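Q: I have 501 residues here and want to know how they pack in 3D. Can you give me a structure?
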Amino acid sequence: MKRRSAPLATEELGKRCEAYLEALNREEYLFASGLKKETDLPDIEAQYADLASPESVMAVRKALEKATGEPALRLLNLLNFLIDLLMEAHVAPIQNRFYALQGKANLKIQKKSLPFRKSQAALASESDRLVRLLIGSEQHRVFARLNPLLLEGLRTTHDLSSKLNKGGHVALCGRRLGVDLKGLGEAAGKLLSQTREIYVESMERAARQRLGLALDDLRREDMAFLLGGAEFDPLFSASSMAASAEGIQRGLGLDPTAGGRIAYDLEDREAKSHRSCTYPIRVPEEIVVALRPKAGHSALRQFLQQVGEGMHRAHTDASLPFEFRTLAVPSVIQASGHLFGRVLLDRDYLASQPSLSSSLDALRQSLALKEIYFIRLLATQFRYELILHSDDSFERKDVIFSDMIQEHCCVRFAPEAYLFFTDFHFHSAVYLRGMILESLLRKRLKERFGEKWRMKKEAGGFLRDIWKGGGRISHSDALERLGGREYDFTPLIEDLKTLFD
């Protein structure tokens, strides 16, 4: 019998994780940017397969049991990363079949074939409701075919969670995030309750004016077109995206390249992904923000969010150990991204753009409705995920999914979609916490530097001081530093209400 090699010490594990992430992010960038036609990702995964093992996880767990203070936080960051790898390795064969089936799926729409992967984009641009409903019906057929694979992945995830934590999947995810997920779910319920009236009134008016529909008739297939704001796309040209980002950075006294540590890939290659993305290849020395320029508010906001995350990573203290430099807490990183992206919801910023003057009021109404819908949908999905993951009777949760979204978002989602639009690891909770942090951060910037904080170099210095901590700053640390409290959604609720003033 072949002897299993002894588990690596935590220092050596950290070094291998750092090397793995550098190789992975570099390869993902080269392939997604169209600079490489074929990817070496399988070879990289095979080379570092030992990281995605129970032995690696247990080695860090044992060390964590003896650690306190900052060393414990450093080990927790490493442990969470290794658990991610272990989870991904267990479901990878199922995910590969899932992606293959998606890639082959085609929808039959009025005697024409539409690839499933392009169907959501088609909904956003389709003005004919009959065609939207046909697309949706065909999507539901694909969802039903994908659900057995999603169920298999869900069961595999729960089985592994039970082995890693006696309390099961919800307890493991809460422990990793450092939050009581049920308590967070109750807080999300308060957000839904306190923003319901303004949401229903605004959505009802938009459905009637834009689609000629009653609120009760809205379906998922209508939302991308209703909220897309395509009529405003010409106001946000593709050629001005980089200048918009640089203007925000310069206003804060920030170097857009962070002293050469951030590179921007803005070329429009045919094989390049259309999605903006940040690749933290070596933090903080080598960060790439890649973009295939595209007109429209949504594309610009997505790009600005990536710029914000890139700035955060590029200003991380280079002397920090890998676990703090690279394994930053997702919600804290996201808060920086949201801070930059949400500039496009700022009344003063929009008013300062000459090209928007004639459409300002209509644009703000459109953006406000889209924002509150997205956040309410996110909160609803999170609360649904708590129910989905509460026991193993997954198949019985499909109607609950559609009923909850109908209740809180006034939109009908087909029960067949109950797994396709659901996250298995509570990333919805991470995203909500990131948005709460951003609301707090922006509030503190206004209190300290005034309403025009975006034009104050001192505000940029304040941000740099936060960013340099990297993963040394946990979500709880960030909350405390900004004067916030866990399970308090008040800043986000106030932000949403302010959008409709």
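Q: Anything worth noting?
A: Residues 69-104 form the longest helix (36 residues). The CA atoms of residues 194 and 493 lie 7 Å apart.
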